[in-house]
Amino acid sequence: MRFTSALFALAAATLSLASDPSDCSTTSKEKTGSDFKLTEQADNANVASLSKIFTAAGKKVSVADVFNDGNHQMTTDSSGRKLWQHTSDFNDEDTTKWVPQGITSTADALDAGTYEGINGWIVSWHRDDDKSVRITFVNRADDGYRHALLVYPHASDNFREVPVHAGGIMWYGNTLWVLDTYNGIRVFDLTNIWQVGDGNGVGKVSSGVYSAAGYKYVIPQIRWYKWSSSFEFRHSYMALDRTTTPDSLIVGEYQTSTSLPIRLVRYELDYTTRRLKTDSSGVSKAIWAYCVNIERMQGAVSANGKFYLSRSNGASKGDLWAWVPGGSAKQNAGFYPRSPEDLSYDKRNGGRLYTVTEAEGVRYIINSAVSSPSSWAGISLLSLGFVALLYVVEKLFFVQPLPKGVPFIREPPGATRFSLKTRWAYMTDCANLHKEAYEKYLEKGQAVVVPGVGFRKELILPPSSYKWINSYDDNQLSACHAFADYDQIIHSLGNDIYLLDPWQGTTVKNELNPSLDNLMDALNDEVGVAFDTYLGTAPGEWVEVNIFEVMKKVIAQANSRFTIGLPLCRNQEYLQTSLELNEQFITSAGTGLASPGVLRPFTTRLAAIPLRLNLRKLRNLVRPIYEQRLEYLKRPRTDPDPNEPRDHFQIMLGYAQRERQHELGDLMNITTRLATANFGSMHQSAFLMTNLILNILGSEKEFNTVSVLREELERVANSDGNPDTWTKAKMAKIVRGDSVQRETLRLHSFGGRALLRKALTDGIITDTGIEIPKGCIFSVLSYAVQTSESKYEQANKFDPFRFSRVREQKQQQQNQQVGNKEGGAAGPPLTFVSTSMDYLAFSNGRHACPGRFLIDFEIKMAMAYLLGNYDLELPAEYKGERPPTVWMTEAQFPPKEARMRVRRREKV
Fold first, then answer.
1. Fewer Cβ atoms within 10 A, N terminus or C terminus of the chain?
2. At 780, phi and psi to the nearest 5?
3. CA distances from 832 to 483, 636, 784, 803, 842 (A)
4. What is the set of domains in the chain, with CATH numbers?
């Protein structure tokens, strides 16, 4: 017993040591994030009082005012580094009174990269005695700069200096975050910048007169995040990471010895409030913490899972490190001049790193490319050699079947591969590359080969071959096999049955679509609940929200109501897991396609590790519902339980019982099919809804779009005297809203191609005489057709009522013809769900998207609820124009950082 007790004591001590957040000597360097806590303190009410004083005096100014009021000038050396002013009457280069520390930029403030039309940096300086902090606004348009003083409003009519080191700063929306080394984070209000007199004191001089140690402007502290854990943490540097969802904040420690803990932590940010995410007690707990153990780290940024770290080396040059958690950090010794400090990341121009240096005489702002460190050149050369070897193997053993004699876009006659220049055009300007292919070859009835992801070459057939493609059965030209090749699920999931036998989609077409009227009330209810949850129900002030973040959550919740029903459709863990799976399906497929064939099984499986882990998590969340639903299936089909749900999940289980009995008992199989169905219904719908709102608001000035849609939606909703209920018949009356949907998808469909097919046999010859070899995958261009001037007038312009005008005119003509007792053809359908050779967003023929009817109803309900219950507008800095979509090769994504202003409407 004594020996057992000793073992338990030893185990307990070991466990305690391993979980100690301050112990970085353990084998595992990852710490429990929730041990690191910041508590939000109440906002400083004195800011509002002082704001009234300065506003009344006409002394409240904007951020742009300060940027445009530069009174000092930076210069640029031969290496492109920015130097502070050093003249006979002013010297920031060598001053010992002030020391530069932190850096942030307008790229942190807003995803667009500019703020109030300004492209600039903000730099923090601490006074040598750490009793005051000044902030420098550097306008990159002319390198002019102006200092301002940070102040703490300690009374309703007075303020004082802020005594912190300010080792790291972050600009986030209309707030500036500044580190207080042992006490946490102070947040300053950039909507309240005040102009003061030129006296030497700090604070109130007399009634209505203020000064700030000679500085013209002051910025007040509005709130404080107080360090609340029982152990010490040194807040030395900080950075914003916009590549995570949601946005997150990185904070790290500077230490001169690894005998002390050197940790990085990550906190989640709420983009809607520009605050840390907190619990009901106002406590923000880190979601990740890690012992990095690199001495003298002065800055850290994270982007797309990769960290860049700066390190100072006394009087020697500084280092830049690259690191992925769990791996070894790679050092670029001497990359920076002496004494580099804080880091900031800018995604523009391929990714840029900004830092400042603090040593007198060598004080710079340094702007460097993320990929530029020269000491990584050796790695690059090794990689190049490895790629060359892979290329040889690829050519010998992984030949992609293509027909002979088809021209390669932008290559000389007889070419069988693409030049690097054409590959680069595919990666950076695919829309124009496809447009050229369409106009030069396809529109004239000729096939062409264009570049694809990684090493791929894509055969594209002309519009004249559309009917020929749809005339072949699936045993010869298979859409399922083509998608299985592209999605790479044989490697990511270990089985391609989910696409080769996609019965989860067949059930939508055959069983769900015919009963859509029965789902209307539940779907409409969930749309309202979701919007109320994420946008609020109380009328009042305008709030600014990230459109994509809101829409993907609303769509996920609404979709889940008809896929799996209550209560899982409101379970945040289920919804978040489903959303993560959507991204992971794309990541694993993209990784596989971009890899050489010889590596594809390995790279795809590696990229799919998070996917498989989340599928197991989803399985565990679904298990109780699955077991409950199986009980319903035990009843005779002739005597069903009246309480049996009729959502998609139950329909899937019923189909499996009848047609795929070997799959019914395999919960992992059922879960994977559910996840693939969720991808189809959630992912594209969230993109569509985001672009739809941006297009509506962006076209408001010219077309009065919001008012036109509100009038139609309210009129149709009330057409049967029951405005809270939607039916198929009522949906069919929404013509202008339908046009907005169709026009949005015409211009902003996710992919640029359609009608994908894989030849399963030899001897297939196209209508233009091209012999398609077995294994060849081909497709047609959709985006290029949908934006062709030969098909649509002003094809690249968003015209919300482009299709409704035609439909309304035809309806008017039909009414006149009926009145005159004449017949008349209605012409081709131009609805959101109708497909044609000029509108391929849902593909065409028997493989057209089976869920498009459900998506149609969902989007119309969402549009009706949103416009009926909220006022919407774009932020002022957008100047009435929607941000453009983001192209990644041939895929088009909505701008995921785009925002809108929202206000709940008063009920009449």
1. C
2. -125, 160
3. 24, 40, 19, 9, 9
4. 32-372 (2.115.10), 502-749+793-837+841-904 (1.10.630.10)
Query: β-strands 217-227, 133-139: how paired?
Result: unpaired
As a 3-state breakdown, the chain gives helix, strand, coil percent values, each rounded to 5, of: 40, 25, 35
- Indicate the residue type of 29: K
Closest residue by Cα to residue 893 from 450, 485, 582: 582
C-beta of residue 202 within 8 angstroms of C-beta of residue 159: yes
CA distance 471 to 469: 5
Mean pLDDT of successive 10-residue stretches along the chain, which has 908 residues? 38 46 87 95 96 96 96 90 92 93 95 90 93 96 96 97 96 97 97 95 92 97 96 96 91 92 95 92 95 93 92 92 86 91 90 93 90 44 51 55 94 92 92 95 96 91 92 90 87 87 83 76 93 90 91 94 92 93 88 80 89 94 94 86 89 92 92 90 90 95 94 94 90 95 94 92 92 94 93 93 92 68 51 88 81 90 96 92 91 90 86
What phi and psi values does residue 897 have, to the nearest 5 degrees?
A: -105, 5
Tokens of 81: 């580094």
Report d(CA 223, CA 188) in Å as an integer: 7
> Alpha-carbon distance 231 to 265, whole Å?
14
Cα of first residue to Cα of last residue in the chain, in angstroms, is 76
pTM: 0.61
Give alpha helix (H) positions in 31-126.
46-56, 63-67, 106-109
Contacts of residue 864, defined as CB under 8 A and 6 or more positions apart, other chains included, come to: 713, 717, 726, 737
**Amino acid identity of 32?**
T
Residues 6+ apart with CB under 8 A from 497: none
Query: How far is Cα 177 from Cα 188, in angstroms, rounded to an integer?
Result: 6
Q: How far is CA 775 from the centre of its chain?
A: 35
Sign of CA dihedral 39, 41, 42, 47: negative
